[in-house]
Amino acid sequence: MKKLLPEVCTIQYGFPFDSAKFSDSNGTPLIRIRDVVRGYSETYTTEEYKSEYIVHENDLLIGMDGEFNIAKWGKTPALLNQRVCRLAPKDSIDKDYLFYFMPIALKRIEEKTPFVTVKHLSAKELNKIEIPVLSLEEQRKIAETLSKVDELIAFREQQLAKLDELVKARFVEMFGDAKLNPNNLPCCSLSEYIVFLTSGSRGWSQYFTDSGEYFITIKNVKNCKITLQDVQCVTPPDNAEAKRTRVQENDLLISITADLGRTGIVTKKIAEHGAYINQHLTCIRLKQDKLNPLYVAYYMESDAGKEQFIAKNQSAVKAGLNFNAINSLKLMVPPLALQNQFAAFVERVDQQKQTIQQSIEKLELMKKALMQEYFG
Questions:
Q1: Could you give the domains of the chain?
Q2: Which of 10, 140, 201, 358 is the most buried (most CB within 10 A)?
Q3: What Å distances lie between residue 259 and 171, 229, 280, 296, 341, CA to CA?
Q4: Whole-angstrom Cα distance, residue 245 to residue 237?
């Protein structure tokens, strides 16, 4: 048996609080769309409010613009702002069952919703959602099964986070705190070790394809890695610019606009496939008889590296670094053997992370299959 969403839960829409009374520190926390998934707010309001708009821990919220996400609110009570709604289940529906059903329904609406800039979820569409209503016992069994899968995914993600912390701890153990340099390692400008430096191509949208060589952007570069998730493919032109911006194995990529200082190392697999960078990245080819690129990436991602990127940022309005800023970056230069030892440790940890990531992907596939089975 299926029922319409308003038959199984109360849908409460947020109040249009006055943005002129918003603050980053004073008043009561206010839930904006960007806060729904993360479960906390950094926006406050001094405006008076009715208690009915207070959101409590584990309340079900939906963001009604952009991506239509449902999430459980975090521990800190906050106010329900406009373009966010709350679902309060009635007696006939289990809260967790509703929580697991809604992403499928919301995704279907999102996929068919036309948009120019941002998609908007309407009350009309929410009210038309039909949910299969089973006995409460069956609902709870379904929710418990999916919850167990989520717990396993969360556990694996915690393992990944701990391995990341292990690498950072190993860096400090081997080289000391990069800000303090307790081992009195020589400090030099990066320019002394650069053999090739360039920034990426702009205006390549005309070369975009569904398959082909990779076009690496800032979103693909982070935490000393290059991720190919959602990477754009291109059929590159046969010209000097393409030759200049084609990356090679062990090239160090650093973001030079927007989110400054994100780093990634080009792997052999990526280089052999063929990859290029866009204008928001710089490609650095190092003297590898002096510096291991992976060591440099981790140094630049450390507090000592990040502070330099902040200091060298050319504008308070639009973040950016030029080649002079890149060349002048300072870093500790330990013996190459020690750098290589650290890089080998990172590679061993990455193998463990890859195994865990594969486990996460299998669990996510299992969850999708179960949701398809339960909800159609």
A1: 2-133 (3.90.220.20), 136-182+334-376 (1.10.287.1120), 186-332 (3.90.220.20)
A2: 201
A3: 23, 18, 9, 18, 30
A4: 11
CA 167 to chain CA centroid, nearest Å: 20
345 to each of 166, 168, 253, 261, 353, how far by Cα in Å?
A: 10, 11, 21, 23, 12
Q: Say what the pLDDT of residue 118 is.
A: 85
Q: Which H helix or E strand runs over 194? A: strand 194-199
Query: 19: helix, coil or strand?
Result: helix
Q: Up-side HSE of residue 24: CA atoms within 13 Å toward CB?
A: 0
| Dist CA 207 CA 192 (whole Å) | 35
pTM for the whole structure: 0.86
Give the helix ranges, DSSP H, for the chain.
5-8, 95-112, 123-127, 136-175, 240-245, 268-273, 293-301, 303-312, 323-327, 336-375
Collapsed DSSP state (helix, strand, coil) of residue 80:
strand
Residues 6+ apart with CB under 8 A from 205: none
pLDDT, one tens digit per residue, over 84-128 is 999 999 999 999 999 999 999 999 999 998 877 789 999 999 999
